[in-house]
Design a protein that fits this description.
The structure is a homohexamer. The first copy, chain A, is an alpha/beta fold. Chain A is 33% helix and 25% strand. In chain A, strand 3, helix 3 (84-95) and strand 4 form a beta-alpha-beta unit. In chain A, helix 1 packs across helix 10 and helix 2 (51-59) packs parallel to helix 3. Chain A is globular and about 60 Å long. The termini of chain A are far apart. Chains in contact: A-B, A-C, B-E, C-D, D-F, E-F. At the A-B interface, helix 6, strand 7, helix 8 and strand 12 of A face helix 6, strand 9, helix 8 and strand 14 of B. Strand 12 (275-277) of chain A pairs antiparallel with strand 9 of chain B.
Chain lengths: 280, 280, 280, 280, 280, 280
């Protein structure tokens, strides 16, 4: 008969899915707060450990919040509650809710952020844009794969738009709507740094978030006959897609180990933008 | 009777408007290519020295192209024409068209990028967000000033949208459309680094371009009762506004010195985005 | 009628005694955990924020623990309770006990660690060994002053031994017991780095803690006719002396402001050593 | 018939025992002063090349002084005799006495400082705490091994006390006198940096010198059921133990090569402390 | 029937002779200016891309100038024609003359600067002084080989003097004219950094340019019985020798590929010195 | 009646002439070896502390050798006599001869290397090329002054040649022999780094030693109508000129203080070059 796991047992299951060894060297992943012997009956998933999300998880009685973004990436010497990050630490500990981060390890893993994004967009034969230095050949940052059949850029952009959770800013595209595209590169989150990799890998399109004027313009200027076209999506939305799949995968691993938990995905949109004005 | 200036005489006039001493220490402003004794009868203005813009200027017979963004900011050891930047150098020199950059000096100057943006949006009593270390008190990065009268955020966002040249991505806003706003901070281009200055200066709204998820989200999390609200505009559009004013100012200074030139502003949209899909 | 202060009001009083501006640039002082609007009826003082001390304070119902040593000096990206420092953060927040650090600001201040040590040893006309860069001339690291009258080194060492709280390791002395000493330099805590300052200031004796073989040997080799002699005391004991005086001073400032608190000094010896074997 | 070696021949024999390749990269070992063709009839051994030791060696007519600690570790641009280190260089050269350093190579070697310490304390199956990057598996910094049979901590501390040359400061211990200990880690000299290695290797006790408050306290706070207990010994004493063994080993190697020398170990205690006051 | 190559085809031929992979990591070799599809009927070779040389090449109608020294080694953010280097870029592009650099790759290659120098001086069995990290064993910086038969230093210095193009400063020699020499090390250009390698390789003589007082004096002080003697030659002259051989080799490779070009070597002496006053 | 000074008294006199505070921050000047209470009856002056010079001084019974170049500029951890620098330390200490360095302080001082060179060449109104950061306005690196009357470059070069001690390499000149020159800049030793200062100061000629191909060629390329012309002299010779003046000045200061010493200037040429082959 299924039993409630302790926090340490949930961490062990998460390690199987999103191993620590896949995290980039500058990253800070793993347990951020919590007691490892506490029972965890409810697990909440979200992209950002901001106060509204933490309140939602605590109010729901979750024993663990798993987020994609780290709370304390740069290192702190204080958790003073008058600072927003310190306030989050206080709320979590006072409520008995642990916090676990799966960031670049969650990006690179098989079944991680990039794999889920590739799958939802219908790519085939996907492989990493920047393979993990240590790990399986299927692991690494970004993905590139093929649409079967290919389609016009405008139609593919609509598919991207429809697949992502709706946020105010929508989806921006650089390229000709009628151009035929088939080879698709992508990177969830902010992928400025993989633009060149997408170009070199022969992509027709590169999808990522937070693209700024200079990197985007330089990429357009260097493009081969206009390719790769660029699709700029919400940083948040591109990572949110992973949450339901991650929740389901963790639930499955825990079940196989004889544990029962309740999983939930945060309904809070933490994309920072509320409304948008566009031409036409 | 007015005469055609040599390039050096145009540079002297530009120095009066956008002095070198206002450039940030990491920047590379001033003459990038050209012979200082060549006559300059036509001057072209643009944001980005990309190939389409350079072709436009050269085809129009311009003797000088003045851009906001530097061509060679990071330093090059080659101008090989098979590289996009080297191709621009070849086209310019082969066509006898000089290239002059007014970047952070053009941002900080009185009548520069930020002053023009503030004026078009109707601000009063504007002053720099980050005053120049050496210079007048009116000079520096960013501006902050007041709307008289104030208005709801949604109405002000529409004013911003209407004032900027139309680009695909439009204008994204974080905040409540009905909130009343009066104290406005802004920074043309990419102004992540001045978010805290806008907050500390008590702004109701902060307008800039290229805002990414993490800086925007952290600013939203730290906001005082939601303020400053954020308005994310096109990097290109926010700087383009300055071009007509800059062209007119340079024309005026040259006239006062007894020279006659023809000035033109590039009609090419170098915002990298072509179309956008948004909800609703 | 006296009232219970909120945490913020206690912090304001502490700032008057041990101002932030006196802390060294590498240090991390101030509020480490706690909610600034919580009432603080009991304040506990200790040298080290280790688990036994934190348990003592929480069990006593303290609303604030003030320690000399920082908990998170090097910056952390996690407060996982399976790590000793994370465990302390959990215990504090779960118990509603705040933590405040007064480290190098507590050393340098008038009435701080070094002043208390100098006073207890009977020094006169004491002044800092390394004056504060910004601050009063009475503020800074270490102290130097005079005994009136002077006495043999052995007798003075006994005075030091008697004045400090008793710890296993006792007091080690380098020098001739019968030598007459009068000019005394000292630095609470670990003062390797001020040995040369004590030498240059003409001290007969230098008292500090944690002196290692190489700095001590080099100082002995460079000594002028054997001076300064060295007295190595317990790092903990030399700083503990300050606690009762600090508690009393904070109590007084709060009283003057119309507040009433209960203060206590930890009775736990956090010197790491438990017993000692010595010759003779 | 045995003959007197030249300095170079003694250096060759020392290289066999304490090879240069075992020295840490930051260290400065080998010949510090002397002419390699000078005959060496007497060799003096000591821990520290301080003036009293150098005078002792020169007065005894030694042709070579071998010390554990380097004279010029940090690099000098002058040997001015008014500086203590320059005075040592003058005395050595004027007296025709060479100086050779065997520091971290002498620590790591088989039969080196750590091996001798382990043997005198009765350890079995000893191996390095931090194996040499290049070298035999028996070479490296620190040692860990087992007592057969184990014994109470208090009794083992007495054994340590009895084995070391007597210095004023004695031996400080952190832990319960009655606790049973068997697995012993040690590092001659100042071993702060190997505390974690001793912990991770499962030691019951870690013996070293110059332990300061913060490293010792953090180790106590992280200890597993109080282990490893800590024994803080004199930096000097822990290294002095090696000298008689080193002198004998070098004498033996030279004999095997057909040379005869007279060896002596310095009787000067260069521990900086002269007397101590302890409780009880 | 032979045809005129495009610039890209000449670059491919040059890559076969002086591969990019042989360049030092700090160097900037390859195409500096020019359009890769332009036809190249005449190729000019020189040591330095200074204005007189560039004018000579352009006036002769060359489509490509190949120099040993890089024009923009340190990276530029402007090619303003009022700067000497910018003036060169303008002259080249205006005249349709490309610029290609073969610097440390031209030094290290088989048949490169050092091989040509060794051959002209009559060395046998020459090999690199500092072999290339990646490449053939015959590739690398400097060369060392043997004279058969050996001869007095004075006679060998005369051979060096006679072999080099005449420059004002002539050839300076450190050593005894009558000493017999046979093993010769050399490095074209400025070879201070290989003096120790020449010494360690057992050279009787080391030939290079730009030797300064301190490196030369230290080498003389460390010399073994006076060897290696030093011969200081003109930096320019030692590299100029390679030009005719390089021109011929490139001509041959292009011929083999079915192309016809005209090659020429600059007659301009870019050694900076014009006359010299010497004793006797 | 005059008496023999102790070394400390000679050092005090030297400090008056060539104060420590004028040395560059990277330099190592002052006493390198010697006992400050030893009597100094004979003082030897030389440019380089090489073995032949040290032997000359010791054989002459000098109690002090004063050199321009430092012996241990880069810092040493050993003075092993099998190393050339260690051999010098042994010879000095064994012979009771001290070593004092006056390097960049000797360059910058009034009456120093550069002043003597300017005076011998007949300059008027000389001032430093790079004034000392702290010091008199007459102190600093390099000098610039005027010839009265001016003369052709060829004639001036002959004056330079005649003024310097004769060395094998002679004097190299870049420029037109018949050009009229009047404003002369100079820097004894190796003055690559002051070429731009000489150019900016409007010099007709710049005289220094150890000029290499690239700095000299770049200076020629940037020259204004060929100016400054360059005269490359022996590093050694340009500094040697100072020795007789320095010896005389020190003798005078000591006399004024009531001391009598014998001074001598080394006759050994430590220019590294022995003979030269030149065209014509």
């Amino acid at each position: 008969m299924p039993k409630t796991p302790a926090l340490q047992e949930v961490i062990d299951a998460a390690e199987e899915l999103w191993p620590h060894s896949l995290a980039e060297s500058w990253d800070a992943v793993g347990l951020v707060a919590g007691r490892r012997d506490a029972p965890v009956a409810k697990i909440h998933f979200a992209v950002d450990p901001v106060s509204a999300v933490v309140d939602e998880a605590c109010d729901a009685g979750a024993g663990l919040l798993i987020t994609h973004h780290p709370l304390l990436l740069r290192g702190v010497t204080s958790v003073d509650a008058s600072d927003p990050k310190g306030a989050v630490v206080h709320r979590l500990i006072e409520s008995g809710c642990a916090l676990l981060t799966a960031h670049t390890n969650g990006d690179s893993a098989v079944g991680g952020v990039n794999d889920v994004l590739a799958e939802i967009l219908g790519l085939r034969d996907q492989e990493p844009l920047k393979p993990a230095e240590e790990g399986l050949t299927e692991e690494g940052l970004g993905r590139i794969g093929s649409l079967e059949p290919g389609m016009p850029l405008g139609e593919f952009a609509s598919r991207v738009f429809g697949a992502l959770p709706s946020v105010a800013g929508g989806v921006r595209v650089a390229g000709d709507q009628d151009a035929f595209v088939q080879r698709i590169a992508l990177c969830g989150g902010a992928g400025d740094s993989l633009i060149t990799a997408a170009h070199d890998a022969g992509a027709d399109v590169y999808i990522t978030g937070d693209l700024r004027h200079h990197p985007a313009s330089e990429a357009r200027e260097r493009a081969r006959g206009g390719r790769p076209y660029l699709i700029d999506v919400s940083h948040f939305a591109s990572e949110w897609l992973w949450l339901p799949a991650a929740a389901q995968a963790l639930d499955r691993v825990l079940s196989e180990r004889g544990y029962e938990v309740e999983v939930a995905v945060s309904g809070i949109n933490t994309d920072p933008w509320d409304f948008v004005l566009t031409p036409g």
